[in-house]
Specification:
The protein is α/β, with parallel strands linked by helices. Helix content is about 45%, strand content about 15%. The protein folds into two domains: about 5-200, BirA Bifunctional Protein, domain 2 (2-Layer Sandwich), CATH 3.30.930.10; about 215-300, Rossmann fold. The chain is built from twelve helices and ten strands. The strands form two sheets. It has a five-stranded mixed β-sheet. A five-stranded mixed β-sheet has the order 7-6-8-9-10. Helix 1 (about 5-25) packs across helix 7, helix 2 runs antiparallel to helix 7 (about 110-130) and helix 6 runs antiparallel to helix 7. The longest helix is centred in the middle third of the chain and has 20 residues, at about 110-130.
C-alpha cells in the first residue's frame, strides 16, 4: 500500500513463481494492464463501454470468440467496433511480439500506450530475474473487476482443468471507498480451496503432510506416561515435535495411530526404561529399534 512503483508487481510475480514451484504445480502466470484495456476500448470507439467490453472478453477462454462477439453486440457495440477488436484478441507470439503489435494498434491512445509501457517494464524485469513458471501477456485478461487501474494478473494450473488459482492487480482508487483517496495499492490472493483441489488431483502432498509429530511416545500407564512427558518437554525445547498417546490403550491401537498419522518414530518408555533413564526408539519405516538417552535421541532427531 502507498507505493506506485512497478517493482511491487515484479516482486509479486516472483513470489507467485516461488510458491507454486515449492508446491510443484506447473502454472502459467497471465498478465495484462487495465490501461491497455481502456486503450482498446478507446481505439474501437467504445470508451464508454469499457466495463461491458472487459466483462465480455474476460470470458474468451470459457465461451470462445464467437460468443464473446455476440455478447458485445448485445451490449450495443457496432459491427465495426467488434471487427476492429478481433486482431487485438488474436495476438500471438512472444511477449515482446505481442507488445510490439499492441504498440502499433494502440498508437493513437495515450492511456493505451501508458499501459503498454507499464506492462513492458514488469515483463522485462521479471524476465531478467527468471521464473520457472510461464509468464505471458494475455490481452483478454480482465478478471471482471472494475477497481483495477493498472496491472492485472491471474494464475492458471497447466495440468488440471480448473479456474484461476491466484489473482490480483493494482487498484489506485479502491481505498477512496473507505475514506482514504489517493492511496495506491497492489496485491494478490491465493485461492486456497482450488490449490487444495489441484494438489489432490495431482497427488502432490508430501508423504509426511499428515504427521502431527516427529515422534510419538507409547503410553503404558501413569508412571511411564509421567516419565515420557519429561522426555517430551526436553525434545520440544530442542525443537523436536513430540507427543504422548493420551490413553493407556493396547499397543496395536497406539501403533496404528502413529501409522495413520505417518509419525516417523515411536518412543517406548516401559518399566525398564523408566528405571534406566533410557528410551527405546523405533524407526517406523525401517523397523530398526535402538536404546538411547534423551540427549542422544535429541541429537538423532534434531538433524
Amino acid at each position: 500500500m502507498g507505493s506506485d512503483s512497478l517493482l511491487n508487481e515484479v516482486e509479486l510475480v516472483t513470489m507467485i513463481d516461488e510458491v507454486f514451484n515449492r508446491f510443484n504445480i506447473n502454472v502459467a502466470i497471465k498478465l495484462n494492464n487495465r490501461k491497455i484495456l481502456s486503450g482498446i476500448a478507446e481505439i474501437i470507439g467504445a470508451a464508454d463501454k469499457i466495463i461491458d467490453i472487459t466483462v465480455a472478453i474476460d470470458k474468451l477462454d470459457k465461451i470462445g470468440i464467437d460468443n464473446v462477439n455476440t455478447e458485445l453486440k448485445e451490449k450495443g457495440l457496432t459491427d465495426e467496433a467488434i471487427a476492429t477488436l478481433q486482431p487485438l484478441l488474436a495476438l500471438d507470439g512472444t511477449n515482446e511480439e505481442r507488445l510490439t503489435a499492441l504498440s502499433g494498434m494502440l498508437a493513437s491512445s495515450e492511456v493505451g500506450m501508458k499501459g503498454i509501457e507499464e506492462m513492458r517494464y514488469v515483463l522485462d524485469h521479471v524476465a531478467a530475474l527468471g521464473t520457472r513458471a510461464r509468464v505471458e501477456l494475455d490481452v483478454s485478461l480482465a478478471r471482471g473487476l472494475n477497481y483495477y487501474t493498472g496491472t492485472i494478473l491471474e494464475v492458471k494450473a497447466l495440468d488440471v482443468a480448473i479456474g484461476s488459482i491466484t489473482g490480483g492487480g493494482r487498484y489506485d482508487n479502491l481505498t477512496g471507498v473507505f475514506g482514504m483517496p489517493g492511496l495506491s495499492g497492489v496485491g494478490i490472493s491465493f485461492g486456497a480451496d482450488r490449490i487444495y483441489d489441484v494438489l489432490n488431483a495431482l497427488d502432490l502432498y508430501p508423504a509426511d503432510t499428515m504427521a502431527t509429530a516427529r515422534v510419538m511416545f507409547v503410553n503404558f500407564g501413569e508412571q511411564e506416561a509421567v516419565a515420557s512427558l519429561s522426555h517430551i518437554m526436553a525434545l520440544r525445547r530442542a525443537g523436536v515435535s513430540a507427543e504422548l498417546y493420551p490413553d493407556s490403550a493396547k499397543m496395536k491401537k497406539q501403533m496404528n495411530y502413529a501409522n495413520d498419522r505417518q509419525i516417523p518414530f515411536v518412543a517406548i518408555v516401559g518399566a525398564d526404561e523408566v528405571q534406566n533413564g533410557t528410551i527405546a526408539l523405533k524407526d517406523m519405516a525401517s523397523g530398526e529399534q535402538v536404546t538411547l538417552t534423551v540427549e542422544q535421541m535429541i541429537e538423532r532427531l534434531a538433524k
